[in-house]
Amino acid sequence: MKSILSYLSEVRLELSKVTWPKRNDVIKLTLIVFIISAIVGGYTGALDYLFTKLLEFFVAR
């Protein structure tokens, strides 16, 4: 039990040393991730649609 308490005490000490990002930075970076994810998802979806139609065209021939 003592080792668990010692571990948790050390974790708390280390977390107090962390430089946490500001709220505005987190919001901006989260929006960037969402936007890039949407762009990549749209691009991947468009390629999937294109290749599906091409495959249907060649198989139906």
TrEMBL record:
Keywords: Cell membrane, Membrane, Protein transport, Translocation, Transmembrane, Transmembrane helix, Transport
Subcellular localization(s) per the UniProt record: Cell membrane; Membrane
Alphabetized InterPro entries for the sequence: SecE_bac, SecE_sf, Translocase_SecE/Sec61-g
Encoding gene per record: secE
HAMAP family: SecE
Function: Essential subunit of the Sec protein translocation channel SecYEG. Clamps together the 2 halves of SecY. May contact the channel plug during translocation.
Subunit and partners: Component of the Sec protein translocase complex. Heterotrimer consisting of SecY, SecE and SecG subunits. The heterotrimers can form oligomers, although 1 heterotrimer is thought to be able to translocate proteins. Interacts with the ribosome. Interacts with SecDF, and other proteins may be involved. Interacts with SecA.
Superkingdom per UniProt: Bacteria
Family of this protein: Belongs to the SecE/SEC61-gamma family.
Topology in the lipid bilayer: Single-pass membrane protein
Entry GO MF terms: protein transmembrane transporter activity
GO cellular component: plasma membrane
Main location group: membrane
An individual GO BP term: protein transport by the Sec complex
PANTHER family: PROTEIN TRANSLOCASE SUBUNIT SECE (PTHR33910:SF1)
Protein name listed in UniProt: Protein translocase subunit SecE
Transmembrane segment boundaries: 29-51
